[in-house]
Write a structure and sequence with these properties.
Layout (H helix, E strand, L loop, with lengths): L1 H38 L10 E5 L14 E5 L11 E5 L8 E12 L2 E7 L11 E2 L3 E9 L2 H9 L1 H60 L1
Antiparallel strand pairs: 1-2, 2-7, 3-4, 3-7, 4-5, 5-6
């Protein structure tokens, strides 16, 4: 019984560690992004100079699709080359929307750099030049479909399913494991007491027999 409970305890500890390893980075990343967003509302949150962005349109299809998550690296505007895919604050937007399009021309007017951009799937270039100060970063890689997952994680149902539910299951599993351990411990204790009682009864019987023999 002890070996079986020890094995179950090891399995339970391993499951707990795996859940923590999976959940902790997500929690740390979400908290970091939220804090950065509150401190610098006009900037895209980044970790180590890299920013994850969720793609909402197919303007860069087929290289980048709607629902993908892309990773862009903060880069000095002077290092951007024609043909690079860049992410930048939409000059025709509200100041918070970010576009990811390809640089078709680098414009330098009296030392002021800006970028003429175009989505690969679009028929025309973007109507306005993207100024250097609007640059968020240069596209590095993508994770197909991860944007949809990230959007779900940011929703209330996503937080419940991916954070609250695993935590509740982990706590419930630990409580069940402890109950089984206590039950096994009590059973072992009861068995030991019964064995001691049987030994006492046997010893008492032997002593009684010896006493009878002496009388005879």
């Amino acid at each position: 019984m002890k070996k079986k409970e020890t094995k179950q305890g090891s399995v339970g500890s391993a499951i707990g560690i795996i859940l923590c390893v999976l959940l902790l980075p997500i929690l740390i990343m979400n908290v970091t992004m939220i804090v950065q967003g509150l401190i610098n509302p006009g900037r895209v949150p980044a970790i180590g100079g890299y920013s994850p962005l969720i793609v909402l349109t197919d303007s860069m299809y087929p290289q980048i699709k709607s629902g993908d998550m892309i990773i862009v690296k903060a880069t000095d505007a002077q290092n951007v080359k024609q043909g690079d895919v860049i992410s930048f604050f939409d000059p025709d937007g509200s100041g918070v929307s970010v576009l990811t399009h390809r640089v078709v021309e680098i414009v330098n007017e009296n030392g002021t750099v800006s970028f003429r951009t175009k989505g690969d799937a679009n028929n025309a270039e973007d109507p306005s030049l993207a100024p250097a100060e609007s640059l968020v970063g240069v596209y590095q890689t993508k994770i197909g479909g991860a944007g949809k997952v990230a959007m779900f994680l940011q929703s209330t149902p996503g937080l419940v399913v991916c954070v609250a539910v695993p935590m509740v299951l982990l706590i419930a599993f630990e409580l069940i494991r402890r109950r089984k351990y206590e039950k096994a411990k009590n059973e072992d204790t009861a068995a030991l007491l019964a064995e001691l009682e049987a030994l006492r009864a046997k010893q008492a019987a032997v002593e009684a027999e010896q006493t009878e023999n002496k009388k005879e």
